[in-house]
Specification:
The protein is elongated and about 105 Å long. It folds into 2 domains: 39 residues; 86 residues, Arc Repressor Mutant, subunit A (Orthogonal Bundle), CATH 1.10.10.1540. α2 packs across α4. It has 4 helices and 4 strands. The protein is of the alpha+beta class and 158 residues long. Helix content is 47%, strand content 8%. It has a 4-stranded antiparallel β-sheet. The protein starts with 11 loop residues before the first helix and ends with a strand.
């Protein structure tokens, strides 16, 4: 063994091999780091490189609304579309099972509507409240309860 082959010294080949593997580890770490940083830009819970949202103030048209083009805005639009479809469906059900009233509106009792509509949706009262807010239907009271309010008349206005 010469002086370079002692356990404390590396041969040139072994030193080069170690440099290559350390360089490989460094490159792999750098790739992972860049990928992670890019991922964090899209992570809503991260503070890394998130764009600063422009905050609107009271009186502006977009006050209290999600940013245009955001996923939140898209989910809100999807929900609005879904509820509108359910309101239209409710109005069609009232037309189908209701009777023409004296005030030119089609009416149905809540109990009958509930029995018929329960197979379509389990959210009847919420949809009725939304339809009343849109002035499509009218009924007495703030809330309707199955059993207790079965004889409350719901009138389709349009």
């Amino acid at each position: 063994m010469d002086g370079n082959d002692s356990p404390g010294h590396l041969t040139d080949d072994k030193a080069a091999e170690r440099m290559v593997s350390v360089k490989g580890l460094k490159d792999n770490w750098q790739k992972w780091s860049e990928k992670h940083q890019e991922h964090q830009k899209h992570n809503p819970f991260s503070h890394d490189a998130r764009p600063v949202a422009v905050v609107s103030h009271r009186g502006h048209d977009d006050y209290g609304r999600p940013l245009r083009g955001s996923l939140t805005a898209q989910r809100g639009e999807d929900a609005r579309t879904h509820v509108s479809r359910e309101v239209r469906e409710l109005c069609e059900v009232i037309k189908d099972i209701g009777v023409q009233g004296r005030n030119h509106g089609i009416s149905v009792e809540f109990g009958k509507l509930f029995e018929h509509y329960v197979t379509i949706s389990n959210k009847l009262v919420g949809i009725l409240l939304r339809a009343r807010k849109q002035k499509l239907v009218d009924f007495e009271g703030e809330m309707l309860w199955q059993g207790k309010d079965d004889h409350v008349v719901i009138t389709l206005l349009q």
